[in-house]
Amino acid sequence: MSVSVLSPTGPLGSVSGLLQVVTLLSLVLLLLKAAQLYLRRQWLLKALKDFPSPPSHWLFGHKHEFQKDQELQHFLKWVEKFPCACPRWLWGSNFAFQVYDPDYAKVILGRPDPKSHEPYRFLVPWIGYGLLLLNGQTWFQHRQMLTPAFHYDILKTYVRIMADSVQIMLDKWEKLITQDPYVEFFEHVSLMTLDTIMKCAFSYQGSIQLDRNSHSYIQAVGNLNKLICSRLRNAFYQSDFIYRLTPDGRLSHYACQVAHQHTEQVIKLRKADLQKEGEMEKIRRKRHLDFLDILLCAKMENGHSLSDQNLKAEVDTFMFEGHDTTASGISWILYALAMHPKHQQACREEIQSLLGDGAFITWDHLNRMPYTTMCIKEALRIYPPVPNISRVLSKPITFPDGRSLPKGIRVTLNIYSLHHNPKVWSNPEVFDPSRFAPGSAQHSHAFLPFSAGSRNCIGKQFAMNELKVAVALTLLRFELSLDPTRLPIPVAEIVLKSMNGIHLHLKKLL
């Protein structure tokens, strides 16, 4: 007797049974995952019991309280209500423990805790595991290897290069304002800082600012800033597989390719130079090597000391960090001075008395502009270029007030909120350069534009020099004022940006 295809013992019956088993297993796994997330959230709620925050939804966290264009301003309201720190729930069991107190910051930055896997993993496709993302002994070795690139003597030689790059930018502005006196600063400043870092750290010959191909790199960096921060806020984008299928994922992949093409070309050109007869020996005889010299010599002298992947990651990292954070700092400083014309004029008079017409600026000049330096620091306080940094606790931590957290908690040092904390800075929204007058007292960890501790910014002095050169030469050439129709809206991306650009009115000084 033949077996009917409709019989449960036939092929279709076997398939149906298999589907039932798969469905049952899927439900069991789903329930186990839900139980795991529930238990994780309960553990976190217990661990964070000493740190209250506004009520949050069990699934959507505090999402309803934060609008993208008001996120920074809204968090400052939390700072006033919740002393020192509080958790911000993103979704489910995903949260960031926000810290904005100098005593708390000192404890955190004094420990060797590694960078948090979240959110930094989203940077890996772009900049790889360079100095920013490395941890442990490998980070220490790379830091030790690259520190000589920022030696006092080599930084002195960069001042002239910085000044030349700034003058190119100012010449462009002088031509632009004959058509329209209002200029959007950020892109111009980004090209200038990229030009500077290419010449100083990577021995680049030519001018990035006059090369239209460089605009694509600047655009790619801008897109990646936005895309990575957007991904951090989207629960569905956490999966690499899902993200690659989305329009944002495809745009991110393309932007990474553009950024990599730029840095690969830099490495290729420098390697070609080193193949020239006598060039390597000439570099070895230099008392101080630049950033790329150090990387390439380490690779060529010992093939195992620095892989091609490590080399590329360090170049990608420093190309981004060396220009984008500095561009943010310069742009916001000039905006702050445009907003406060009295302080702007006081800086200008100080610089004029020091430099005259500004035809020549040297290393020695940079330490003889105290009022301008005070204004720069106050602008960095109000507009810190890097608004947040994260760590994951490798062991339990106890803060000075006795409250504690267990191992495994992700801690975000909210530098923007720290700099605007009314318990740390009186009238924090007021631009007051006297806070940084010689002899003024402040907590060692109240002002952290370059972080602190062993993982502070390796290029801190390089950046400060560039800020001073750019501000000094700009004020000698132009008077800055606001565009009242387009006031910038600060937004915390990887670097502090403006949602609508930074538009200023320029008037050429006679």
Describe the structure.
By secondary structure, the protein is an alpha+beta fold. It has a single domain, classed as Cytochrome P450 (Cytochrome p450), CATH 1.10.630. The chain is 54% helix and 9% strand. The protein has 19 helices and 11 strands. It has helices spanning 11-47, 71-81, 102-109, 117-120, 124-127, 136-146, 152-176, 185-202, 213-232, 240-245, 247-274, 279-285, 291-301, 308-339, 341-355, 363-366, 370-382, 415-419, 460-477; strands spanning 85-91, 94-99, 182-184, 388-392, 397-398, 404-405, 410-414, 478-482, 490-492, 496-498, 503-508. The strands form 4 sheets. It has a 4-stranded mixed β-sheet. A 3-stranded antiparallel β-sheet has the order 3-11-8. Strand 1 (85-91) and strand 2 (94-99) form a beta hairpin. The longest helix has 37 residues, at 11-47. The protein is globular, with a radius of gyration of 26 Å. It starts with 10 loop residues before the first helix and ends with a strand. Residues 1-6 have low confidence and may be disordered.
State the gist of this model.
The protein is an alpha+beta fold and 510 residues long. It has helices spanning 11-47, 71-81, 102-109, 117-120, 124-127, 136-146, 152-176, 185-202, 213-232, 240-245, 247-274, 279-285, 291-301, 308-339, 341-355, 363-366, 370-382, 415-419, 460-477; strands at residues 85-91, 94-99, 182-184, 388-392, 397-398, 404-405, 410-414, 478-482, 490-492, 496-498, 503-508. It is globular and about 90 Å long.
